[in-house]
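I am writing to request your help with a piece of structural work I have in hand. What I wish to show you is a protein chain and, alongside it, a tokenised description of its three-dimensional fold. Could you please explain, in whatever detail you think fit, how the structure tokens follow from the sequence? You will find the record immediately after this paragraph.
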Amino acid sequence: MAADFSEGMLEVGRRRNAGNPRIEFVHADAQDLPFADEEFDAVTMSFGLRNVHDPKLALAELFRVTKPGGRIVICEFSRPPLGLIRLGYSLYLRWVLPIVSRVTSSNAPAYNYLGDSILDWPDQKTLSSWLRDAGFEGVGYRNLTAGVVALHRGRRPGGRAGR
């Protein structure tokens, strides 16, 4: 099952996976998922949580649809922990990305939004606390690309051991 709020993104997915009967594409709002309680063994979200109006509500919905013992994995832009890298990344997002996007993109404002949304997004520890607050346990994260991106993970309590 692949779900997205954007019909355009769903159409791209359908085209790229034409002929694959194992993938169903569903238009869905992460804050009000159209799935049954405890329906999925695993839920994932990549580069989307920071675009949701209420990310804590979305995490509660992801928890709701995850089976006991099931997993959550979220890949999202993050905050580099090393000050020098964080400074360079911030300068890139504030100054370089807007200039490059004005020259190369037909939709430069989208890149301005991208930079702003990344800079406004909380750090890894805060997102981890949101996952715990939603009910997930065994929460952790792994920094990728010097912390520019982080892979967050957790498990819904319950279910069989060793899942």
Q: What stands out?
A: Strands lie at 2-4, 25-27, 40-46, 66-77, 137-144, 149-155. Residues 50 and 120 are 9 Å apart (CA to CA).
